[in-house]
Structure formats: C-alpha cells, structure tokens
Amino acid sequence: MDITLPAANGDRVSYRLVGKPVEPIEGARFSRIAYAAAHVVADPIAMTDPWSRPAVDWNRTIAFRHHLWRLGFRIAEAMDTSQRGMGFDWASAKELIRRSIAEAKTVPGADLASGAGTDHLAPAAAKTLDDVIGAYEEQFAFIEGEGGKAIMMASRALAAVAKGPDDYARVYDRMLSQASGKVILHWLGDMFDPALKNYWGSNDFDAALDTVVAIIERHAGKVEGIKISLLDAEKEVRLRDRLPDGVVMFTGDDFNYPALIAGDGRKHSHALLGIFDAIAPVANAALAKLAEGDKAGYDALMAPTVPLSRKIFEAPTEYYKAGIVFMAWLNGHQDHFTMVGGMQSARGICHYADVFRLSDQAGLLADPDLAIARMKTLLAVAGV
User: 0.90 exceeded by the pTM?
Assistant: First the structure.
C-alpha cells in the first residue's frame, strides 16, 4: 500500500507501508505499574466556541478508557494529556473525573488516579500561598470525595507566587499531611509548560532535587510515588536512587522510557506516560515480554516506538497532545481529528506525515486501509 506524503523541503514523496500491526495481549500481566495518561475526545458538532468553551464526546472518551483498561493499563486521568491548562478547564475535568471513577467501578481490575491541580485559579489571581493551598484543597476534596486517588500536579499558580524552596515545602507539606490516601507527585518540566520554569524554587537541578527528596522523606507514608517529566534519563535515575523505600519512580520521560522501565539491574522505573495513550497495543505486548523475562523481545517491540515518541514530543513539547489525538483518529478510536481548543492546528502537515510513517514502522496502524484513507483526507485539507 502506497501513499504520497509531503516532505519538509516541499517535495512529494511516495511512501509504502512496511509495518505489521502488533497484536496486543488482553489479560497480559505486567511486572511494572503502567499508567497511561489519556486524552479526551472532543465533540466537534457541539463545539461552537472551540477556543473558550470545550465540548467533550463523553461516550467516545470513556470508550477509550475501556480500550486502555482492556490492555492492562491504569489510567492517569485529567492530566496534561487531556489538555489541562490548554483548553480543558477544571469544570470539564471534574466531569471527566466523576465519570471515569464511576466507570472504573464497573470494570474488574480497572484502576486510575486523577490530576489535582490549581488550574481553576489563574496564576495572576494567586496572591499568597494560602490561595494556592485553597485551590489544591478544592481539587483534592473533589477527587477524594468521589472515591478517587490524587496525582498532585505541578501548579502554575505556585510557580508564580513562591519565593523559594521553603514556599514549595509549605504547600506540599500541607497537602500531603491532610490527604486521605496515598498521593502521586508530578514534577513537570518547563519544556511541557514554560510557566513551570524553576519549579521547586530553583533553576539548579541539584537544589531542586534536594527540595523534592526532603518533602518525600517527610511524607513517605503518604507518597505512592513521583512522576518526573524532564526528558532527561540521568536526572530521573538520580531522583530514583534517592527515593525512600516504598516510594516508587514513575517515568514520565517520553524520550527514554524503554530503558528506564527495564531498569539498570539495581532499580527500575514504573510508568506514567502520555505516549502510552498512543502506543498502548505495542506497550502492552512489550510489557508482557518483560514480565516473562524476555528482555530482547521487550526491546524489539519498544525500540521502534521511540522515534515516534520523540517526533510527537518534539519542541514545542507542550503541543504533543495533537500527535496523540491524531493517532487515535488514525486508529479508529474517534471519527474526527478535532481537539478541544482547536489544538489540532498546533502542528503542521509535515509533522503529521512523519507521525504517520513512524506509526507504521512501529506496528501501530491497527487498520492500515483506514489509516491511509484518513491520512489522505487530512492531506487534501492541507492542499497536498
């Protein structure tokens, strides 16, 4: 099967599909905790004001969660991948969290954790640390009130208000001390959100590392783990090596996840990844291989997904959500390529052409005929 795709130099290039779709293993057992941060499916008909009023297709959104649960993944709900802070507001996130927690209770073995942040508080409106704490408390209370587990998301408001490491410690100490259950922390780098620059009160990694480790050590009984998303494997390993017993590392490194999950022979990372939304079938098969002790089989499946992930998460990294939803559309999980906030426009047609090629090469086009037909419609709209 062939398709003509655009090249960055303006040429048109014929591409022949080479990939064989990887078959996932339903009921597979993993030796790693694997959270997939899931996207939301927009409702293009109801979205009359795309930039300011999100409209969600709840049926398709929940159906995608069932897809991930069937493949053995836990779900990290209402996180960055769902466009929190980029078109998807707290009111919509509350409805998503409520629906997902209720749905999980109907699925044997289904598990999820939900993002608790401060995004209903505009950074400019936050004047004091108490404002930030109050915003966190509101979101924690909602999630815990629904019977859910909280992921404490990095806060733009806290980054704007905090004067140094002690201010971060005050906010995190307060929230962790009063959380009703164990919490997952999230260290999100400024490549994902420029407003989070110098998070933990310093632009020096060693100083930031000391701050976050001290917080975790004080509350080790309340912290299930920490997700670090800095796209730097060495920094993740340094934090991983300092975590107290019983606190796990969740890799959020969408560039280096295969090696981090496999481990270095001493320690390994578990996973909380946006890319797992897009590569779930292959990640499922690879994690099953790893659990069986077949490291070579794991590597063979995971390796082709890395160029794809690096393309999807290329700078400006915060626009990676467009590639995630593009792949969901190619694979028939939704009938359109429309995103909350019109975010599909954040990437150009050559980017999508590259994602298409790399998806094929990773065995991630479940129905190649459908994928080609949909890619051709996108190309036609772009004048290719």
Answer: yes
